[in-house]
Each structure stands twice: as structure tokens, then as C-alpha cells.
Write a structure and sequence with these properties.
single chain, 208 residues, alpha/beta, Rossmann fold, three-stranded antiparallel beta sheet, binds adenosine-5'-triphosphate
């Protein structure tokens, strides 16, 4: 499948995130027994692993700069990221499929091109006026990827949270193809070993 992602403008190997002795506390207790020391460089594909409640989502929110560490530091370069969470909050539930796609048309593509891209992501004409709130999880994932393929500049970093949960084989195929066309930095929380292998993850960050 041809996705036509515009690529991230960052050069490969640029340091995006540096965590030094970082930890986080929601209460008086630190989340991680061992503090976190890692770097993320542009172009890497990293799987974030750990049991339920081990702090994977918390770590992502720190990497995004939404949460500050309670110990140590997390330094972030200036980069553009997209977080596709399990609720697909990238999708505006008050929009229709077509208007969601149109919102990402920052480069002013003609209507015909938007429709071509919607079709590539299996959104044929009968879907265009459908309210996003009625889409299934798999359809929302597809529309999120389609929105990114419409945007002028792909994000420097895509973060996926359990992306294959609740997706059927066809949707997993589309997700895999889209991610394999993407050249930027990828962080993915997933227990799906087959998927991680298919998208060529370079290394793992395990929380415990
Ligand atoms: N806003 C909050 N206030 C207090 N505790 C929180 C808050 N958010 C998360 N926690 C707790 O912090 C711990 C880590 O949560 P987090 O959601 O980061 O884990 P996770 O690894 O993403 O979990 P899962 O695999 O179940 O999605 C959990 O014990 C959770 O209950």
C-alpha cells in the first residue's frame, strides 16, 4: 500500500530525549525501583515494555513533556510528535470522516487527493459523511493514519499505545504497511511480538 507520508525533517541520529536518573511519583512513592537512564535518537524504533501498571503511559507522557519527573531529569529537543493512544483521541468525535481528514490538510491538497487518500485507507464514498463517533476502533486507527498521510509534514515521532489491540488482520496489515513507510522515530507499547518484528523494532525499554 502506498501511504505517501511526507517525511520528518530531522536528521537521523539527532538526540531527541535524554533521561538521567529519572523517576516519577503520583504520591509519595516513586514509580520505578531503578531510575531511568536512556536516550532516544531520531530514526529509532523502540518498544516500551512492562507489566500493567509499570508506568508505560506515564513514561510516554514524560517523553511528550506533559509530566515532569519527580527525580532526575528528562531533556527534550524540539520535535513534533503524534500520540495515537488507545482511545484514538486524535480523532475528533464531533467530526465526520471527511471533515476529520480535511482538518489535517495543512498543505492545501485538492479535494480529489483527499478522497484518493481516504479510499486508500478503505474509506470509500459511503463513509465520508459518517460521524467519527460511530467508527469502530479499527476504523479510527485507519482514519488516524490517513490523517497523518494527509498532513504536509509527518511528525518527527509517532507513539503508538497497544496499536494492534482490537484490530482485525486487515487493519493490522494496513497499520504495519503505514508504519513501515514512516521514516521518523517510533515508540510503541505493545505485547504483540509478531507486530514488533514486522515493524523492525531496534530495541526495547523495559520498565519494572
Ligand atoms: N493520575 C494518576 N494518579 C495516581 N496514580 C496514577 C495516575 N495515573 C496512573 N497512576 C498509577 O501509576 C501506575 C502507572 O500507571 P500507567 O498508566 O503509567 O501504567 P501502564 O504501564 O501504562 O499500565 P497499563 O499497562 O495497565 O496501561 C499505576 O499503578 C497507576 O494506577
Amino acid at each position: 500500500m502506498k501511504v505517501d507520508f511526507d517525511n520528518s525533517l530531522l536528521h537521523k541520529g539527532k538526540i531527541l530525549v535524554t533521561a538521567s536518573r529519572a523517576n516519577f511519583a503520583y504520591s509519595d512513592q516513586q514509580l520505578w525501583r531503578e531510575t531511568l537512564d536512556f536516550q532516544i535518537t531520531s530514526g529509532e524504533r523502540i518498544a516500551i515494555k512492562g507489566a500493567n501498571g509499570s508506568g508505560k503511559t506515564t513514561l510516554i507522557r514524560m517523553i511528550l513533556g506533559d509530566l515532569q519527573p519527580s527525580a532526575g531529569s528528562i531533556e527534550r529537543a524540539d520535535f513534533k510528535s503524534i500520540y495515537i493512544d488507545q482511545d484514538y483521541s486524535l480523532i475528533d468525535n464531533s467530526s465526520t470522516v471527511y471533515s476529520q481528514a480535511w482538518k489535517y490538510n495543512s498543505g492545501g491538497l485538492p479535494e480529489h487527493d483527499i478522497k484518493t487518500r481516504l479510499n486508500r485507507f478503505l474509506f470509500t464514498r459511503e463513509y465520508w459523511d459518517k460521524p467519527c463517533i460511530n467508527l469502530s476502533g479499527g476504523e479510527k486507527m485507519r482514519l488516524a493514519l490517513c490523517s497523518l498521510a494527509i498532513a504536509t509534514q509527518a511528525p518527527d515521532m509517532i507513539i503508538l499505545d497497544e496499536p494492534t489491540n482490537n484490530l482485525d488482520i486487515q487493519n493490522i496489515g494496513i497499520l504495519t504497511a503505514a508504519i513501515n513507510e514512516y521514516r521518523g522515530t517510533l515508540l510503541v507499547i505493545s505485547h504483540d511480538l509478531h507486530f514488533l518484528q514486522e515493524i523492525g523494532v531496534d530495541r526495547e525499554l523495559t520498565l519494572g
